[in-house]
Amino acid sequence: MTSVQVEEHHDEHGSNGAAGAGAAGDNEGYQRGLGARQIQMIAIGGAIGTGLFLGAGKAIHKAGPSLILAYAIAGLVIFFIMRALGELLMYRPVSGSFSEYAREFVGPFFGFVTGWTYWLFWVVTGITEVTAAAQYMQYWTHDSIPQWGYALIFTVILYGANLISVKLFGELEFWFSMVKVTAIIGMILICAGILTIGFSDAGDTASVSHLWDNGGFFPNGIGSTLMTLQIVMFAFLAVELVGVTAGESKDPKKTLPKAINTVPWRIAVFYVGALIMILSVVPWTSFQPGVSPFVAAFEKMGLGIGAAIVNFVVLTAALSSCNSGMYSTGRMLRDLALNGQGPRFFTKLTKNGLPLVGTTFSAALMLVGVWINYQWPGEAFNYVVSFATISGMWAWIMILVSQINYRRKADRGILPQSTFRAPGAPYTSWFALAFIGMVIVMMGIDKDARISLYCAPIWAAILCVTYLVLKSRNPDAAAFKKREHGGPAVEDGAKLTKD
């Protein structure tokens, strides 16, 4: 389906947004403007953000070289999650993605909770990323402009960029990701040169023995390494964004599996490989919380211009993630509205197929980040990162549970098998769920991360009350209506039969 006018959208779906959702096509009026190279870079760039560039400084300070192992194990879990999502996407690639799958395979209530929680996750993440971007600007300006001022400027600019077209969003993300990928690969090569040739100020002391010197591989104990898992998992948040692009990808059946299968090597290179090289060149004891380990590493090497370049790259990474947040929030609000689980005005599209109202509403809430930066400029990042982690992990939990339930139905012949089956499932999905549960326990133990667990029950209570009110006023909101990929609606649970 091509882009439509706002008025045409209302004519097509009628006055009842929930009913229209059941009959609509998979892209629901969106433009299929995202090509293969853009999807690939969105997938690669989604895992390269402030969690790596900024949050890793705190994690290195806590865990030392053992952080490498934490990223490797967490990366394996992320691959299990992404393959579970890939199986669902190839079964039915729809714009609502995991919210739609939770609605079908766990229940309408869980679809409602997942949609609104993932929307909140990106609003909070947008605040996180714009906070990080404002901090990076202080590297050059030294407080000549307050941190909250940069946060305001970036929020307004990115909002404007998301009002033009999805193709422009994809192009921006392509080049944002290209900058990040090029910079990390370049940094790895520079570190390799220092280790082998010995140039720069760090040349005389650089050695892979830094990985086990200064207290060993676990200098602060295994417990400290486990306590960094919530920082590590935050670094991987947004890898699932490729699922949200399903309704706007030109060829989702082809491009999405390729993007998902890049997960292992990009984690191996951009996280494990980069940390091995950095911590081999500069001892882990040289890094401090709140300081990008990449910037700090180049400063220790005596490459001042390198630090400035890396600071620009991490600024790009933060803005890229915030840009993704602007993109996904409008789509998630529209999916909720199409299913009768959100206000109907969120269903409106512009001529270019953009969810203007949902994006505008979300951007307005992201301005709360400006106030946070004004009130607590030093602690803003730490306040929001924990709540973003628990919100994002809920989406992962729903992906895994949905995939387990889908596989059970597919194996019984109730639903068609996916063309991209997750290897080792459902056992790998159960393992990933157990790992996420362990991370949540670690968050409860960590006093810095515990605030997110205080906020989660409050958010859950708000959603439960809202859903009960919504259900009493609109019973259709509690009824699942499947939106097929390029086909008619199919009743849930209908047994497949041979011709």
TrEMBL record:
It holds the Pfam family AA_permease. One of its GO terms (cellular component) is plasma membrane. The keyword Secreted does not apply. The chain crosses the membrane at residues 41-60, 66-85, 105-128, 148-169, 181-200, 220-242, 263-282, 302-322, 354-374, 380-406, 427-445, 451-470. Keywords: Amino-acid transport, Cell membrane, Membrane, Transmembrane, Transmembrane helix, Transport. It is found in: Cell membrane. Residues 1-23 are annotated as: Disordered. PROSITE patterns: AMINO_ACID_PERMEASE_1. InterPro entries: AA-permease/SLC12A_dom, Amino_acid_permease_CS. One of its GO terms (biological process) is amino acid transport. Residues 39-474 form the Amino acid permease/ SLC12A domain. The keyword Transmembrane applies. It is a multi-pass membrane protein. Residues 1-14 have a biased composition (Basic and acidic residues). Coiled coil: none annotated. Belongs to the amino acid-polyamine-organocation (APC) superfamily. Amino acid transporter (AAT) (TC 2.A.3.1) family. This is Proline-specific permease. It comes from Streptomyces silvensis.
